[in-house]
Write a structure and sequence with these properties.
Layout (H helix, E strand, L loop, with lengths): L1 E2 L24 E6 L16 E7 L8 H6 L4 E2 L2 E3 L3 E6 L5 H19 L4 E3 L3 H9 L3 E3 L1 E3 L11 H7 L2 E5 L22 H13 L2 E3 L5 H10 L5 E2 L16 H9 L3 E5 L14 H15 L4 E4 L12 H9 L24 H9 L4 H20 L2
Parallel strand pairs: 1-5, 4-8, 5-9, 7-8, 9-10, 10-11, 12-13, 13-14
Antiparallel strand pairs: 2-3, 3-6
Length: 380
């Protein structure tokens, strides 16, 4: 999914045969919006919430899209917005600047897509499959933060009509809707967050629980009337990283009919290394499979750089300065993905087949389960 929203960034992605998240690409900052604590909607949320930046996020670069297609990836899950903590200030309850910047980003993305022959926006599961048949990369717009709402629940329906098909309530830190996974307070959903989630359920926008805090996740799964997703999360029992999810969260999630996609980013696979192996990635898959079962697991490989590139020093320093990560939770470059880049996704297929899994089960893990989830939530 592509993001619309906060400071120069490179996008987060995950890949899967048939359907997966796309490649992170360089983002262009549009707006830096400091937010305070005024306003009506969500006014019951009295905790201090860090301010964020709003940025534009472009589509996969020319050198990236062929790698996805070469890896037999049919869908770029492109995040259109991500919260970026900013020193000082608090979120405004009604921040029109965040909404204006986000809508401008959607418009820019649509213009970019019209200028590309290898990309197409997908609004339902059928659109993803049609793109794959045509040899194109389907782009699904999503928010990795609820900051683009600007404190207004009504924007959920507007963004959905503009093609945004999934959203996280929080990105690592505290937001108006919920706390993120690295937020020490772990305050759970706010009343505003519950209203946002109810509206997402009503319009058919997928709830993404990756990056979200423990208590917020558990409360969201209990309250949601539709299945949700962890689009790129690993097992805490294998690697006790705050981005990873615990066994009770996995059990609660599958009871809702959701899908968990294994995260291939080197920071979250195995403790003590930024260069995990394919066996390390399969250990994460085996742990979640053992709890969730084959119908609830997929691959969300979280590619974070264009092919052959490492994160720059400046790019690495930004999430540390923002308080999103620490050197302990995000290892410095160099890193190495267990899969390589997106063009090597067939290595995952080979690893699954070597473990003796039937072809039908392999296809479910490589996109079939997520296509089913998309159809359940979006229709089509």
């Amino acid at each position: 999914m592509q993001r619309l929203g906060h400071g120069p960034e490179i996008l987060e992605d995950a890949a899967a045969v048939g359907c997966g998240d796309g490649q992170r690409v360089q983002a262009l900052r549009l707006v830096e919006a400091e937010r305070d604590s005024g306003g009506a909607d969500g006014a019951e949320h009295r905790r201090r919430v860090p301010a964020t930046r709003v940025v534009d996020v472009p589509l996969p670069q020319e050198q990236s899209a062929p790698n996805f297609l070469a890896g037999d990836i049919g869908c770029h899950h492109a995040r259109a917005i991500r919260a970026r903590a900013r020193a000082g200030g608090e979120h405004r309850r009604h921040d029109h600047r965040a909404r204006v910047a986000t809508i401008a980003n959607i418009a820019k993305l649509n213009r970019q897509i019209r200028g590309r022959t290898d990309l197409v926006v997908a609004r339902n599961a059928a659109g993803m499959m049609r793109a794959k048949i045509e040899g194109k990369l389907a782009v699904v717009l999503a928010f990795q933060s609820s900051g683009g709402l600007g404190g207004d629940v009504g924007m959920v329906e507007i963004y959905h009509q503009l093609g945004v098909k999934a959203m996280n309530l929080a990105y690592n830190k505290a937001e108006l809707a919920a706390d993120g996974c690295t937020e020490a307070h772990d305050g759970g959903l706010t009343d505003f967050g519950r209203r946002v989630m109810a509206e997402m359920n009503r319009v058919g926008m997928l709830l993404d629980l990756s990056h979200t805090g423990y208590r917020s996740i558990m409360e969201a799964m209990e309250a949601s009337t539709r299945p949700a997703a962890f689009t790129h999360s690993n097992a805490f029992s294998v690697f006790g990283h705050p981005r990873n999810i615990r066994n009770d969260q996995i059990r609660a999630h599958i009871a809702t009919g959701g899908v968990i996609r294994i995260n291939g980013h080197p920071a979250f696979v195995r403790a003590g290394t930024a260069m995990p192996t394919m066996d390390d990635l399969m250990a994460q898959l085996d742990q979640i499979l053992g709890i969730a079962g084959v119908a609830h697991v997929g691959m969300g490989l979280d590619f974070s750089q264009p092919p052959g590139q490492q994160m720059t020093a400046g790019r690495y320093a930004q999430p540390l300065a923002d308080g999103i990560f620490t050197p302990d939770t995000l290892p410095p470059p160099a890193i190495r993905y267990p899969v390589g880049d997106a063009s090597f996704l067939p290595r995952v297929t080979e690893a699954l087949l070597r473990r003796g899994w039937p072809d039908d089960d392999v296809l479910k893990r490589l996109g079939g389960n997520f296509l089913r989830l998309f159809a359940d939530v979006w229709g089509g």
